[in-house]
Design a protein that fits this description.
Shape: rod-shaped
Number of helices: 12
Strand content: under 5%
Structural class: mainly alpha
Number of domains: 3
Radius of gyration: 55 Å
Largest sheet: none
Helix content: over 70%
Distance between the termini: 162 Å
Order of helices and strands: HHHHHHHHHHHH
Length: about 325
């Protein structure tokens, strides 16, 4: 521009402002024509700006609401995560039960199976069930996990059934039994007590246990002995005593035979078997009491002599 002005003459320089004015007016006219021709573009642009402004305001408002809701959302997410963990744990338990269904069924049926065996006097099978239960429960006790509520319940039920079984065996000893069955029942008691001792706390010593078992045996058999003389009529003292002597002679012999077959006849520490000695002393004392009560009721001396003679054959 400066180079062109230097080459211009004075007249041309004087006309330059007018020429520039005309050029500026032309440019303004062109701009005006362009604006008029494209006015809708400016209107749309303005409308778009207004819409964008409104949308940005709405977006800002929604963003503020979301920011305010984030803590609560985090809380719900944490709760949901916890619930999901619980559901997963329960699902794991259900899956475990499904995978071990047969084993669990066997465990849950132990009390009912044991009860059925005891009710039907299948004592060998009952002892096998108790042994299986002890092994299963011992494995659970040895596990590092906490005790299971179901297992604890089963342990209590089995313990109750064991008590019922032992009482039933003792009740059998209070009945009229042959030697073979008597030996078998005491054998059941020994096996049952051995299983109880293994599963429970440390039991008594062998000698002390044998002493207790002998005393239980004699006490139960004594109930049977007592029942034999209950049906004898005491209206005739002589006949009553004779019948009592016959019954006691036979029953005492049977009981001592059973006792010797089960526990042996050896002396304990060079002395007579203490439980048997105490039983014999008490039984003879009871028999003497019967004689002292009934003999004064007999007037015939020969009858008294016969009774005393029969009494010497015990």
């Amino acid at each position: 521009m400066q180079a062109s002005l230097k080459t211009c003459s004075l007249e041309e320089l004087k006309k330059e402002p007018w020429r520039l004015q005309i050029q500026a007016d032309n440019t303004a006219e062109q701009l005006r024509s362009l604006v008029l021709k494209n006015y809708h573009v400016f209107i749309q642009s303005n409308q778009c700006a207004a819409i964008v402004k409104d949308d940005l305001a709405d977006l800002k408002e929604e963003t503020t609401k979301i920011e305010a809701a984030i803590p609560e959302l985090q809380k719900y997410c944490a709760e949901f995560q916890k619930e999901v963990a619980d559901v997963v744990a329960k699902h794991g338990d259900i899956q475990f039960v499904f995978e071990h269904y047969l084993q669990l069924t066997e465990l849950l049926e132990i009390p009912q199976l044991l009860e059925a065996c005891i009710h039907n006097e299948l004592f060998d099978s009952a002892l096998d069930v108790i042994k299986f239960a002890n092994e299963a429960f011992q494995a659970d006790e040895n596990a590092e996990t906490s005790r299971n509520v179901v297992i604890d319940c089963l342990v209590r039920e089995v313990a109750e059934m064991i008590g019922i079984m032992r009482e039933k065996l003792l009740q059998k000893l209070r009945e009229d039994l042959q030697l073979a069955l008597c030996v078998r029942i005491v054998g059941y008691l020994r096996r049952l007590d051995a299983l109880i001792e293994k599963h429970g706390a440390a039991g008594v010593g062998l000698l002390e246990y044998e002493k207790q078992l002998k005393e239980e045996f004699l006490a139960c058999r004594n109930v049977w002995l007592s029942s034999l003389s209950r049906g004898i009529s005491s209206s005739d003292p002589y006949q009553y005593i004779i019948q009592v002597i016959d019954i006691k002679r036979t029953s005492w012999f049977d009981l001592i035979t059973q006792y010797s077959a089960i526990f042996g006849s050896e002396n304990v520490d060079g002395k007579v078997d203490p439980p048997l000695c105490r039983w014999a002393t008490a039984t003879v004392a009871n028999f003497i009491q019967i004689l002292m009560k009934q003999l004064p009721k007999i007037d015939d001396f020969s009858s008294i002599a016969t009774i005393l003679e029969q009494s010497l054959f015990f």
